[in-house]
């Protein structure tokens, strides 16, 4: 069989038996939402939609009693059964079934297999930065579809930064009226109305994804000052940023003027002004109200122009405010240095696979206060890193370009010494958008490396499964190329991967 499966299932048993033939008479029965998902997937893959009937050859059902998000898939020559522990598990079983579809002389088929599968980590995420460059609702929903197909279940939206504020807040309307127009390079800005955000949240939920909104503070806040200048300090340049400005590599930030560069660390909220905390209460209340998921991200990274003591005082108050609105607080790992951070907060680690500068200790501090850690090692699964020196977009600050192989060859349990498996909430692959401005750019940078992150998040540890090797992974995603192409994903055809040619032409015109 063409073992083009990613993420790797927990158990796969291939049978020496006749495959299931997909024909124009193939039918689907069972749970309606999953059946609709499978119909769309098969239409994209094969060009035809099977009929929905009361008792079909492909049967989709939910049965309790298993691990959350788990499923069992059985394929025989006479039929296919997908059983999910819950709706999410059934959805993921359908995604695996879509990966198994292969062309054969005379038509399409699914090989005879049994698969039992469940996730390693509860949190499996991808982040989209919509602040450096803004992306409309249609683009965000396309990213949701792509991520969900790989069993990722959280979409972290980086909604605010120096370049723009992207979410409407009724109580502070100037945030979008005046703070949303700018973007990197002077490109088009924009923002999500409350209705836009609701559409994104609901679309994600239909695909078993939870939206995690981020309001980044106290740095990365220049755009707030475009709307409410009394809330922010004047820009403060580090020596390194001043040098970049002098050499013409970055524009100089000016208070009240939209920032179009990519430098970080020059902005800060006014830490000791009571009005700042009125702002936080109102904004976080509205964001929390519009977000049914449990998490609210409050940033906390790269606050280079905020005094260390002020940073600690601010993050303590900000985390308490976010928590008061009924949310689990998430913050970048720098906030782990704050002794008074609200108990139970989740730390997002963005240091390297080999921690430096105490980043690992800051991440562990979240666990010591009853929280857990999301792993986002920048030199492995930051999707905005170049593949190699010749990649036309992307950055290379995270220990140089990140090849597909490097994105795969890391193990979550090995990153932070002393971090127990149960303290790892999950894995998230961020896509920052300093150089990314279209869905085509997103596809190019996400695929195939997002599959590396999905496998680290879902599949067994590298020492527990014989398929969890680079040699296996490159072969498996090579076979996914035709599926990704049929889904409209403009993936990067990395020379590290022996890509399969499209197999659509091998199917007969009338075949399913």
UniProtKB/TrEMBL annotation:
Q: Which residues form the Beta-hexosaminidase bacterial type N-terminal domain?
A: 5-117
Q: Give the InterPro entries listed for this entry.
A: Beta_hexosaminidase_sua/sub, GH, Glyco_hydro_20_cat, Hex-like_dom2, HEX_bac_N
Asked if the record carries the keyword DNA-binding, the reply is no
The reaction(s) this protein catalyses: Hydrolysis of terminal non-reducing N-acetyl-D-hexosamine residues in N-acetyl-beta-D-hexosaminides
Domain Glycoside hydrolase family 20 catalytic, by residue range, is 121-304, 312-460
Q: Which SUPFAM superfamilies match?
A: (Trans)glycosidases, beta-N-acetylhexosaminidase-like domain
| Coiled-coil blocks | none
Which regions span the lipid bilayer?
none
Query: EC number(s) of the enzyme?
Result: 3.2.1.52
The superkingdom listed in its UniProt entry is: Bacteria
Give the record's keywords alphabetically. Glycosidase, Hydrolase
- Pfam families, from UniProt? Glyco_hydro_20, Glyco_hydro_20b
Task: Output the PANTHER family linked to this UniProt entry.
Answer: BETA-HEXOSAMINIDASE, BETA-N-ACETYLHEXOSAMINIDASE
Q: Which family does it belong to?
A: Belongs to the glycosyl hydrolase 20 family.
Name of the featured protein: beta-N-acetylhexosaminidase
Instruction: Write down the species.
Output: Microbacterium wangchenii
């Amino acid at each position: 069989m063409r073992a083009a499966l990613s993420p790797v299932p927990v158990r796969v048993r291939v049978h020496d038996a006749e495959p299931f033939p997909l024909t124009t008479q193939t039918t689907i029965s069972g749970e309606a939402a999953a059946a609709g998902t499978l119909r769309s997937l098969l239409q994209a893959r094969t060009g035809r939609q099977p009929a929905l009937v009361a008792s079909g050859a492909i049967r989709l059902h939910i049965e309790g009693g298993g691990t959350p998000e788990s499923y069992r898939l059985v394929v025989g020559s006479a039929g296919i059964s997908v059983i999910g522990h819950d709706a999410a598990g059934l959805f993921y079983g359908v995604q695996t079934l879509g990966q198994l579809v292969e062309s054969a002389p005379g038509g399409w088929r699914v090989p005879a297999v049994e698969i039992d599968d469940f996730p390693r980590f509860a949190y499996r995420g991808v982040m989209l930065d919509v602040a450096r460059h803004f992306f409309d609702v249609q683009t965000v929903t396309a990213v949701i579809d792509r991520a969900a197909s790989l069993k990722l279940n959280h979409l972290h939206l980086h909604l605010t930064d120096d370049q723009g504020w992207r979410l409407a807040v009724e109580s502070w309307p100037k945030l979008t009226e005046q703070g949303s127009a700018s973007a990197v390079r002077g490109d088009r800005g924009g923002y999500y109305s409350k209705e836009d955000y609701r559409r994104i949240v609901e679309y994600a939920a239909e695909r078993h994804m939870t939206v995690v909104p981020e309001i980044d503070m106290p740095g990365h806040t220049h755009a707030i000052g475009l709307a409410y200048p009394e809330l922010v300090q004047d820009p403060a340049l580090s020596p390194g940023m001043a040098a970049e400005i002098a050499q013409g590599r970055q524009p100089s930030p000016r208070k009240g003027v939209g920032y179009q560069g990519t430098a970080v660390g020059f902005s800060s909220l006014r830490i000791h002004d009571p009005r700042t905390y009125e702002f936080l209460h109102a904004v976080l209340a509205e964001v929390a109200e519009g977000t049914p998921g449990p998490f609210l991200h409050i940033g906390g990274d790269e606050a280079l122009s905020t005094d260390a003591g002020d940073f600690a005082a601010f993050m303590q108050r900000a985390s308490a405010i976010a928590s008061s609105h009924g949310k689990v607080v998430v913050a970048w790992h720098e906030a782990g240095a704050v002794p008074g951070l609200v108990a139970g907060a989740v730390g997002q680690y963005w240091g390297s696979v080999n921690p430096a500068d105490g980043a690992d200790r800051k991440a562990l501090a979240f666990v010591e206060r009853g929280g857990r850690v999301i792993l986002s090692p920048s030199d492995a699964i930051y999707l905005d890193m170049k593949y190699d020196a010749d990649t036309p977009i992307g950055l290379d600050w995270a220990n140089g370009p990140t090849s597909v192989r490097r994105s795969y060859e890391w193990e979550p349990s090995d990153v932070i010494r002393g971090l127990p498996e149960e303290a790892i909430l999950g894995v998230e692959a961020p896509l920052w958008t300093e150089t990314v401005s279209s869905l085509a750019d997103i596809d190019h940078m996400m695929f195939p490396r997002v599959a590396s992150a999905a496998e680290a998040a879902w599949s067994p540890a590298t020492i527990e499964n014989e398929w969890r090797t680079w040699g296996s992974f490159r072969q498996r995603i090579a076979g996914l190329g035709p599926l990704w192409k049929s889904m409209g994903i403009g993936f990067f055809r990395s020379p590290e991967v022996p890509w399969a040619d499209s197999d659509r032409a091998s199917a007969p015109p009338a075949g399913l």
